[in-house]
């Protein structure tokens, strides 16, 4: 696995960006789109996956999502972040600096939100102050992040399904059929598992697997994502940005914001901050310019930047460990 200061080679970055568009694309298809030799792309792609620098995982679709901000007791931030990352309902967990020590996204439906807010999270050891805000609208998830590495034509050639950003509504999740649960369990560990292998493991035909995969994705029950540290793609400065914006300028600001490839994630919150934005920039100067000199920032009432120190979980996958997917057993 690459060290923190390393950046992937140009071909490695382009292959990773291709997987972000189509996580299960064949090496031959990626090679054709990139204009590279299939053997070269296959070799480098397998190296990326085997090294752990890049992972392709499946995340089960959420019915409701909240953002958790925790202020921790001195010396307890690492323990709190690790504890939150071990939970099956967390999607990402970041240790941060600034007003918050830890920021996380949790999946929870409305029926269980009160228990989470009043009993579950307040009992976590090491947390001194806690704030939980529901996401009212998702504008961009990490799955839709396109880091500006590929051309629009290349992205178009790899795009298979053109769907809008999934909007969690807080409703209770329907019971998952056993066959879907088995497939989701496999995807949670390795979303590039060949169709033939999934068929063998589940005990159904390849054509049936393909139909189930299409159904799971079309119904937003399966969300395939690439897990990669932004720094490996050349984005060394990552931050969570809390934005307050007058309601009359909200839609215009979001429209301008989403024009930037540095935006990995953007969501409207139900609390005092109108928006939460995850930015990945090439360096601190670029981050500074993004939040002070861009057209969207001029529309904001206030902006608070919380640098990310360490990610302990991304896209439902704990970093440095094998995803458990225990919620699917």
UniProtKB/TrEMBL annotation:
Q: Which residues are in the HTH asnC-type domain? A: 181-217
Gene3D superfamilies per the record? Answer: 3.30.70.920, Winged helix-like DNA-binding domain superfamily/Winged helix DNA-binding domain (1.10.10.10)
The domain of life for this entry's organism is Bacteria
Transmembrane listed as a keyword = no
Q: What does the entry list under GO cellular component?
A: cytosol
GO BP terms: response to amino acid
Name recorded for this polypeptide: Lrp/AsnC family transcriptional regulator
């Amino acid at each position: 696995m690459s060290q923190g200061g390393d950046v992937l080679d140009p071909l490695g970055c382009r292959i990773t960006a291709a997987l972000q568009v189509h996580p299960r694309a064949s090496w031959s298809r990626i090679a054709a789109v990139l204009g590279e030799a299939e053997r070269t792309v296959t070799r480098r792609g397998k190296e990326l996956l085997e090294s752990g620098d890049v992972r392709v995982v499946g995340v089960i679709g959420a019915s409701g999502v909240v953002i958790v901000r925790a202020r921790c007791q001195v010396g307890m931030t690492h323990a709190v972040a690790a504890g939150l990352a071990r939970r099956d309902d967390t999607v990402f967990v970041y240790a941060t600096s600034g007003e918050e020590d830890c920021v996380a996204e949790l999946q929870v439906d409305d029926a269980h939100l009160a228990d989470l807010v009043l009993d579950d999270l307040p009992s976590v050891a090491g947390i001194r102050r806690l704030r939980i805000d529901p996401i009212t609208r998702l504008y961009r998830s990490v799955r839709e992040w396109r880091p500006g590495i590929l051309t629009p034509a290349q992205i178009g050639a790899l795009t298979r399904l053109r769907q809008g950003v999934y909007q969690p509504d807080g409703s209770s999740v329907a019971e998952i059929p056993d066959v879907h649960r088995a497939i989701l369990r496999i995807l949670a560990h390795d979303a590039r598992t060949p169709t033939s292998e999934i068929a063998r493991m589940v005990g159904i035909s390849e054509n049936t697997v393909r139909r189930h995969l299409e159904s799971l994705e079309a119904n937003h029950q399966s969300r395939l994502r690439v897990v990669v540290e932004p720094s490996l793609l050349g984005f060394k400065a990552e931050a969570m940005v809390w934005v307050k914006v007058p309601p009359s300028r909200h839609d215009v600001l979001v429209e301008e914001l989403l024009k930037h490839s540095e935006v990995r994630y953007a969501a409207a919150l139900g609390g005092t901050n109108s928006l939460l934005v995850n930015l990945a920039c090439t360096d601190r100067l670029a981050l500074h310019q993004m939040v002070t000199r861009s057209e969207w920032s001029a529309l904001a009432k206030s902006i608070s930047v919380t640098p990310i120190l360490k990610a302990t979980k991304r896209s439902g996958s704990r970093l440095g460990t094998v995803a458990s997917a225990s919620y699917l057993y």
